[in-house]
Write the C-alpha cells for this entry.
Amino acid sequence: MGMSMGKGGDDEPIMEINTTPLIDVMLVLLIMFIITIPVQLHSVNMNMPQASQTNKPVVPPVVLKIDIDESGNVFWNGEAMPDRKVLESRLLGIAQLPDQPEVHLKPQKTTHYKHVAAVMASAQRLGVTNIGIVGNERFVQ
C-alpha cells in the first residue's frame, strides 16, 4: 500500500500543485524580514535638565497672606482692606510682577464661600496665577 498523490493511475500526470517549494521560499523570506527589521527600542528618549555648575542659594518664596473673616472683610497681611477696589489694585500690582509671589488665601471657619469665591474671581480676572487656599478642608464635600 503506497501513498498515491493523484486520483488517476500510474500513467496519468499529477494535477495537484507541489507546495513544498513555496513554503520553503516563504520561510526564507520570513527569516530575512525578521533579520532586517531594525531593533525596536522600548524606551522613551527624554531631554532631562542638566545640573547647573553654579549653586544658587535657595531663596524662600515671598508669601502674601489674604485673610477673610466671617462677615467678608478682607485683610492683606493683617491690614484691613477698606473696599474691593483697594484689594483689586494690590492684586493687579502682584499680577504685573514677572515673578509673582505666593498668595495664601485663608478664610475663617465660619466664612461663607461666596466671599472666598469673590476674592478668587478677582485674582483670576486680574492675572494672579500663584494662589492657594489655606485650610480648605471644610469646602470639600
Notes: The mean pLDDT is 82. The chain is about 30% helix and 15% strand.
